[in-house]
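If you are new to this repository, start here. Below is one unmodified record pulled from the training split, so you can see the exact layout before writing a loader.
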Amino acid sequence: MPAVWTPRHASHAPGGGYWLGVELPGDEEPPRGEVLRSALERAGAPVHIATLHGDEPLLRIHDPEFVDWFSRAWSEWEAAGLVEETGQQRVVPYVFALPQLTSGRPAPEPAAVWARSGRFAMDTMTLISPGTYDAARGAVDVALTACDLVLDGTNRAAYAACRPPGHHAGARLYGGSCYLNNAAVAAQYLRDLGADRVAVIDIDAHHGNGTQELFYARDDVSFGSVHVDPAQGWFPHFLGFADERGADQGTGFNRNLPVAPGTTDDDWVAAVHDLVEEVRRFGPSALVVSLGVDAAEADPESPLKITDAGFTRAGRALGTLDVPTVFVQEGGYDLEQLGPLVLAVLRGFESAPVPRRSKEEHA
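And here is the target side for that same chain:
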C-alpha cells in the first residue's frame, strides 16, 4: 500500500494549549509526523511526497471566509505587536461569537485582531503557530495525493499520513487540534472525480463532529463513527450521540456508535463490523477511513483499551468492503506505539479475504 507524507507538517508546532485556563504541554507536535514516516519506511511502504492541489478542493468543503482568515491569522497577530506586547507566540482565542450573541445573525469580523479567532474557534486548546496554516494545507494535499493514488486504478488503497489531523474541523470551525478537515476534503474530491457514493468511517477514539456536520444533510456521502460516549464526559461533548441520524435528504446516512469508557477489543471491533455492514448496504464507490489510533490502551489520551490485535481486526473488517479506500490519519499520541498501531490497521486491511480488482474494474 502506498503512503503519502509531507515535510510541511513540521511547521505546525503549537507547543500546547489551554484547558480550564491552565496551559498544558502539547501532544500533537512535529515528532508525530516523523514517527509516522519512519514507521512506514521501515515497513517497506512506498512513501510519496504530497503534490500541490490548489484551493479548489479545499473550498468545496471549507467556507472561503474562514480559509482567508486562517491564512492570515498568524501574520496579523504578529503585525499587531501581540508577541511583543503580551509574549504570546500563538494565536489564542479568548472571546467566542456564539450564535446567541447575534440572535443567529452572522458575526462581523471584529476590528481587534485578538478577537478574530473567536468567530471560528471551538475551544482554547487549539492554538495557531507561525507555520500552522502551511502545515494544515500540506495535510490536505497529503489526503488529496492519496486519493490520486487510488483514483488512477493502480492501487486498491492508500494511506495519508496527515498532520495536523482534521476530523473535528467544520466548514468554518476549527478545534480539537484540527484546522482543516482532511477526510472530508478527500471524500468530496472522490465524489467530484467520479465516485457516485462515498462512505466515511471514523475509528478515532473521539467523535468526528466536523465530518459529521459537513455531510449531515447529504445522501451521497455517509458517515459512521465508533467513539467513546460523549454522554460520559468526553470530547467533543455536544455531538456524537446515537440519535444523530442525519437531516433532510441525509436522514439515515449518519451513524454513531458510542461506546463506554474502558471498552476493550471485542465490543469495539463488533461496532466497527456494524459500521462496515451498514456501509456495505449503502453501496459506496469509495471509502475514506479516519484512522485515529488514540483508542489504544497505552495511549495517554485514550478513554478506551484497544490492543494491537483489535486494530488489526478492525483493519481486516474495513478491507472486506473491497472498494477504493483512502486512510487519513487522525489521532494517536503514544509515540512508541503510533507507527505500529497504524501499520496494524493497514496490514489487517491488506489481509482481508477479498479479491484484488484489476485496473479496468477500478475504472
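Two things worth knowing about this chain: The radius of gyration is 19 Å. The longest strand covers residues 221-228.
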